[in-house]
Amino acid sequence: MSFRFYTNAVSRASRAFAAGIFIVGLLLIGFGFMIYLLPELFATLFAVVFCISGVGCGITAVKIFLAQKKLVDMDSDDSEDYRENVQIHIEEHFDS
Q1: In the chain, where are the structural domains located?
Q2: How many other CB atoms are there within 10 angstroms of residue 1's CB atom?
Q3: What would the pLDDT profile of 33-86 be if each residue is shown by its tens digit?
Q4: 15-26 b/e with 16+ CB inside 10 Å = b?
Q5: Contact, 9 vs 17, CB < 8 A?
């Protein structure tokens, strides 16, 4: 009789994890061979992906710069426009 410190669920989970790692390893080997055999195709695909990512980053940066400019313009103009009819009330409680 063998004594186990783990349950059957742990055994199944570790087998599933090992199978997932094995499949990922086989996919990486396959992609490696495909890149080795067709380097121009993959270089072109990666170049397209990087260009699209760069354009997306540029557009996001421009949006942030415009939003920041809008905030600075709003603050530097008449700062009382958005504070119209606002009064501050101070309640003083004096304990005797």
Answers
A1: 8-37, 39-76
A2: 2
A3: 888 899 898 889 889 999 999 999 999 999 999 988 888 777 665 555 556 677
A4: eeeeeeeeeeee
A5: no
